[in-house]
Amino acid sequence: MIPRYLIDFDLAELPVIEKDVIVIGAGIAGLFTAIKASETESVLMITKKSLMDSNTRFAQGGIAAVLSDEDSPEYHLQDTLFAGAGLCDREAVEVLVHEGPEGVQHLIEMGTHFDTENGEYALTKEGAHSQRRILHANGDATGYEIVRALSEKATANPGIEIWDDHFVIDLVTEEGVCCGAIVQKPDGQKVFVRGKATVLCSGGTGQLYRYTTNPDVATGDGIAMAYRAGADIRDMEFIQFHPTSLCYPGAPRFLISEAVRGEGAVLRNIRGERFMERYHEQLELAPRDVVARAILNEIEETKSTFVYIDITHESAEMVMHRFPNIYEYCLRYGLDLTSDWIPVAPAAHYMMGGVKTDLNGETNIKRLFACGEVSSTGVHGANRLASNSLSEAVVFGKRIVERIRTLAPLTEQPQIVNEHVRTNVPMQAVVERRLKLQKVMVRYIGLLRNAEGLLKGQEELKRQLSIFQSILTKREEYEFANLLTCALLMAESALQREESRGAHYREDYPERNDAVWHKHTVLNRESDSMMKEREQHV
């Protein structure tokens, strides 16, 4: 059993810091929410590394919003619902497609510079989009540009206090209300940060897998601490593997953006054969789960470890202008995007599930909100449409702030003492434990799943539960406990969903089954069981 808190404490003995709004995390969701909230509230923003360390920074493709006269919110809605494989919440998608353009406008007002052509915003097209609606910045460095602009604005804002290198250990709740969080400072001291609203913007779970496009900080902390606090965790089986990450000796799994295929790149196996026509009528622009599984199949059939992405038929000028970041990065490893086929393979990329929220970003725990990849708003369903994630963060970030403004301040100081029998057992090196967990996830709970493997994976993961009986003091130890929590939630959800849908593929149940599984999986620690919530809005 996963305990309620990771550490022992007496709240009365901890120093207390008071703020109106506590924002945990520093990607687009955290930065945007903090900036909007600071207009009327005092804000504390806590990040375990720095403002520049988040998944947002690595987002290349862009941000999806309807800005062209040839496009419409209805087209964007239909594309999102199609990609989501029947599990999107239609109301949440309606919110996204109608409020997305205003969200982009807010980013522009906050200093983000998107690319233009002939005086208008340059729009591109990505996989499963029917129209050109993706804004980008500096070609393929959209996320970096957004984080740059928002970080500068947040740092200069007197209404936002920023704590770098601080680790949020747990959320503090009393009678179903979130009062704040316990935070560990860089020197190891623990404090209780109290606020009328707490917003989780802590990102995804990419580090569950050995090969991921995510940075080191993506350890599922927000999902795990919300689960311990009693929040509903929804659809954890749906993790998206990006089909094309650089797969080259000595190079990290760097993302080769979907936009490269959007601009005409093709996929070839190691024999040089273009293969996507055997898998889907949309070829290279099929939904990500289809492309990722096709690549995996080709890798197995050709007994290789990668396939190639080839954009050499396009002009070198266009490639270098449109993808300067990818071009430069590949060049570091002796690969020229304009003349070489680039070796790629799938890598863990984005968590579609997460902490369940309503249309105002609020969870089932009062005063606790979730925004960005940590949340499950209902927008993404079983498979996220490319470039909807950045839009989702700003649209729901704004809604969260509007809801927070209606909340009264907290009155009573919670009195909580948490004592658990823990032992100071010499822990096997956390690095080894983490690597072992990642291998289990890749082997049994990855792109292809079946009951036998999922049960085996679950069994292996449960052997690590002793971490929760240990005295934890270091960031790596907390992170491992959070990764293990998310891994167990994912294994359980994947085992329960006996069908294939979107990013979740079961070899023993290869067909989608709407009669039985047109619903969400919801896990809650308090009920210690899985609820199945039927989707009403599809």
UniProtKB/TrEMBL annotation:
<dbReference type="InterPro" id="IPR015939">
    <property type="entry name" value="Fum_Rdtase/Succ_DH_flav-like_C"/>
</dbReference>
<dbReference type="GO" id="GO:0005737">
    <property type="term" value="C:cytoplasm"/>
</dbReference>
<protein>
    <recommendedName>
        <fullName>L-aspartate oxidase</fullName>
        <ecNumber>1.4.3.16</ecNumber>
    </recommendedName>
</protein>
<keyword id="KW-0285">Flavoprotein</keyword>
<dbReference type="Pfam" id="PF02910">
    <property type="entry name" value="Succ_DH_flav_C"/>
</dbReference>
<feature type="active site" description="Proton acceptor">
    <location>
        <position position="288"/>
    </location>
</feature>
<comment type="function">
    <text>Catalyzes the oxidation of L-aspartate to iminoaspartate.</text>
</comment>
<comment type="similarity">
    <text>Belongs to the FAD-dependent oxidoreductase 2 family. NadB subfamily.</text>
</comment>
<dbReference type="InterPro" id="IPR005288">
    <property type="entry name" value="NadB"/>
</dbReference>
<keyword id="KW-0274">FAD</keyword>
<dbReference type="GO" id="GO:0034628">
    <property type="term" value="P:'de novo' NAD+ biosynthetic process from L-aspartate"/>
</dbReference>
<feature type="domain" description="Fumarate reductase/succinate dehydrogenase flavoprotein-like C-terminal">
    <location>
        <begin position="434"/>
        <end position="528"/>
    </location>
</feature>
<dbReference type="InterPro" id="IPR027477">
    <property type="entry name" value="Succ_DH/fumarate_Rdtase_cat_sf"/>
</dbReference>
<comment type="pathway">
    <text>Cofactor biosynthesis; NAD(+) biosynthesis; iminoaspartate from L-aspartate (oxidase route): step 1/1.</text>
</comment>
<dbReference type="Pfam" id="PF00890">
    <property type="entry name" value="FAD_binding_2"/>
</dbReference>
<keyword id="KW-0662">Pyridine nucleotide biosynthesis</keyword>
<feature type="domain" description="FAD-dependent oxidoreductase 2 FAD-binding">
    <location>
        <begin position="20"/>
        <end position="390"/>
    </location>
</feature>
<dbReference type="InterPro" id="IPR036188">
    <property type="entry name" value="FAD/NAD-bd_sf"/>
</dbReference>
<dbReference type="GO" id="GO:0033765">
    <property type="term" value="F:steroid dehydrogenase activity, acting on the CH-CH group of donors"/>
</dbReference>
<dbReference type="InterPro" id="IPR003953">
    <property type="entry name" value="FAD-dep_OxRdtase_2_FAD-bd"/>
</dbReference>
<dbReference type="InterPro" id="IPR037099">
    <property type="entry name" value="Fum_R/Succ_DH_flav-like_C_sf"/>
</dbReference>
<keyword id="KW-0560">Oxidoreductase</keyword>
<dbReference type="GO" id="GO:0008734">
    <property type="term" value="F:L-aspartate oxidase activity"/>
</dbReference>
